[in-house]
Every structure is written in C-alpha cells, then in structure tokens.
C-alpha cells in the first residue's frame, strides 16, 4: 500500500502524460446505421409523401450520437491527477497499479469486485486496470476501469 512518489512536481499545464479516449470501434457505426436504416424503413412503409423520411431523419442521427456518447469517456494523467470519466484522483493518492488481463476481467468485475470501488467498464476494451486509492479519507478502496494501453498508463503514473 505504497504511494508512488513523484520525482518532480507535476505539470499543471501542457500536454498530458497519458490520454486515451475509450471510443467504440469504428466498424460499429456501420451495423448501427444499418439497423437505424431498417427502423427508418419501417416508418417509410407506413407513411406516404414527405412524412416517410421522418424515420430515417430521426433514427440514423440518434444511433450515431448514441455510439459517439458511449465512446466519450477518457482516461488521462495530467495536471497532477488521474482522470477517469468524470472522476478525478490526485496522483499522490495513487497506490499499487495492477493490470487485469482480458482472461481475468470477468472475475475482477464479478466476484472479486468490491461494491464501494469506482468502476468505469467499457465492454469493447479488452483489459482493465485496478488502482489502489491510498487517501485515508476516501471510502473508495480502489478504482477499476477499462484502458487499452495499460503499460502506458502505469508508466505515466510512475513518472
């Protein structure tokens, strides 16, 4: 349960040490547009004239925006803190960093998961990282979240 001391004071501006957007795979947009088009076709068959295009005009943008919204979460190390989604943790309270491989993810998110832990899971990202919180005033024992480049995140947290 040790903290990772910083060799130099954290930067308050400039480029982040680590920045990753947990976006959905690009190919997901194609099936989403296909399903939205099918739903729009259902409306198209029921209404004549200009009203027939309302289904397409609504469903396709809604599906695209929904996928974009699902992939808007970020994992960042910048300005002396770790930011995962909307949550922030000062780097001085980052303890042990453990990469949970894809094969053990179900255990880590199921029977091993502490109900008071902070969780940000994205099913399309293979591995998760568990970070111990060393703040004595924080009731959260650890954060567990999806990240594609776990080694890059661990290196950024060690700096």
Automatic annotation (TrEMBL):
<protein>
    <submittedName>
        <fullName>DUF3093 domain-containing protein</fullName>
    </submittedName>
</protein>
<keyword id="KW-0812">Transmembrane</keyword>
<feature type="transmembrane region" description="Helical">
    <location>
        <begin position="26"/>
        <end position="47"/>
    </location>
</feature>
<feature type="transmembrane region" description="Helical">
    <location>
        <begin position="53"/>
        <end position="70"/>
    </location>
</feature>
<dbReference type="Pfam" id="PF11292">
    <property type="entry name" value="DUF3093"/>
</dbReference>
<keyword id="KW-0472">Membrane</keyword>
<dbReference type="InterPro" id="IPR021443">
    <property type="entry name" value="DUF3093"/>
</dbReference>
<keyword id="KW-1133">Transmembrane helix</keyword>
<dbReference type="InterPro" id="IPR018130">
    <property type="entry name" value="Ribosomal_uS2_CS"/>
</dbReference>
């Amino acid at each position: 349960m040790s903290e990772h001391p910083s060799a130099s004071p954290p930067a308050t501006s400039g480029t982040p040490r680590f920045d990753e957007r947990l976006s959905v795979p690009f190919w997901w947009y194609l099936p989403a547009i296909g399903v939205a088009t099918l739903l729009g076709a259902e409306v198209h068959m029921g209404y004549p004239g200009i009203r027939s295009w309302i289904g397409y005009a609504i469903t396709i943008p809604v599906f695209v925006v929904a996928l974009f919204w699902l992939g808007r979460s970020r994992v960042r190390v910048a300005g002396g803190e770790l930011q995962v989604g909307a949550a922030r943790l000062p780097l001085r309270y980052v303890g042990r960093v453990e990469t949970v491989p894809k094969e053990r993810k179900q255990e880590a998110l199921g029977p091993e998961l502490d109900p008071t832990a902070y969780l940000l899971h994205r099913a399309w990202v293979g591995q998760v990282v568990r970070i111990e919180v060393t703040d004595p005033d924080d009731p959260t024992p650890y954060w567990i979240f999806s990240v594609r480049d776990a080694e890059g995140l661990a290196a950024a947290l060690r700096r």
